[in-house]
Amino acid sequence: MAIGLAEEFLLDPTITYLNHGAYGATPRAVFEEHLRWQRLLEAEPVDFLSRHGTERLAYSRQILADFLGTARDNLVYVTNGTVGLNIVANSLKLGPGDELLTTDHEHGGIDRLFRFSAEKSGFKLVHCPIPVPLTTQEDMLDCFLSSVTDNTRAILISHLSSPSSIVFPVKQICNFAKSRGIMTIVDGSHVPGQLELDLEDIDADFYVGILHKWVCAPKGCAFLYARPQMQCYLDPLVVSWGWEPKVPGPSRFVEFHEWQGSRDISSFLSVPAALDFWSARDWPGIRQACRDMAMAARQEVCKMFGTEPYHPDSPEWHGQITCAPLPAGTDANDLLHRLRHEDGIDVSVDYFANNPRVRISVQAYNDWSDIERLLDALERQVKHAHSRATAQ
């Protein structure tokens, strides 16, 4: 299995990089476009930001909106998914007696955000356990939606879970929630560029996606989507000129959230170049090849250690990123360190539901030799760890 785009990226060739899901990696051509925008910024900062920033951002948002299946002014750029979800969390009008339903598969930083919000505002954050291994999407939906009560006012759900890499049926969840008058907040950090995404088809009230991951835009680039009827509920996280603009524009949502004072917007302006990079190649074919390689890698790890995967092999459950359980008792932190510093492999090793797992991300710069190096290192390192534990 080979995709053949390694030369298009700036990654250190001495490192086997299987951790694209952490921060992404930017192609050389997109990085050069990012530098071009930064040079224009430095050549005339006032022209760049004050005189042309709004129109350039609007153009970039239009290109992004076309890609995501929505209107331009339903989107604002933010620097990362955490910022986008902070805007939503800080705008929630929930209090004592209200419940926000989520899962035990959410990103740790986002879980902390909503626990903080719950403690501050007095609402109840309800974690519905989604046990693995999963069987069917219908069973998952039955499990999750059975936790909805008369007090459920909002749902927070990952589209593709960061800790477990499972793709959840968010469209069905949003449809159910709408029928009950429940607000929906979707953390789609890993989805843009990795899975097909049509925001208006999913029809969440709020959706956050990161662009410096699988779209491979420069770092510090994400978006917040808000359904038009829900935009008025979002307060600005940073109050600035957009709260009382000198000349009101067509979208209060954009005005409230786009201008946050002085900041480098060049990563946002580079999004069209990132989308052009992929559209000039066989992006659907590349994604499928990466998905196949990720699934084959997961199968090999599970076979090696006799562990049970989190979900069936069927394609609705996964993308280019997948998790494989490791043997019970594996010290995930020690294994992570040894893989990186002894074997030159950067891959996510952590715990999910208190059990160790490896999360393998596959992007267009990877080939099967990267997976073979990981498999060899995992077998050797886990065996050595067991020997060390026995000797002690």
Descriptive overview:
This is Aminotransferase class V-fold PLP-dependent enzyme. Keywords: Aminotransferase, Pyridoxal phosphate, Transferase. Pfam families: Aminotran_5. The chain has 392 residues and is α/β, with parallel strands linked by helices. The protein folds into two domains: 133 residues, Aspartate Aminotransferase, domain 1, CATH 3.90.1150; 234 residues, 3-Layer(aba) Sandwich (Aspartate Aminotransferase, domain 2). Helices cover 43% and strands 15% of the residues. The protein contains 15 helices and twelve strands. It has a seven-stranded mixed sheet with strand order 2-8-7-6-5-3-4, sandwiched between helices. Strands 9-12-11 form a three-stranded antiparallel sheet. α8 links the parallel β5 and β6. α2 crosses α3 and α13 runs parallel beside α15. It is globular. The mean pLDDT is 96.
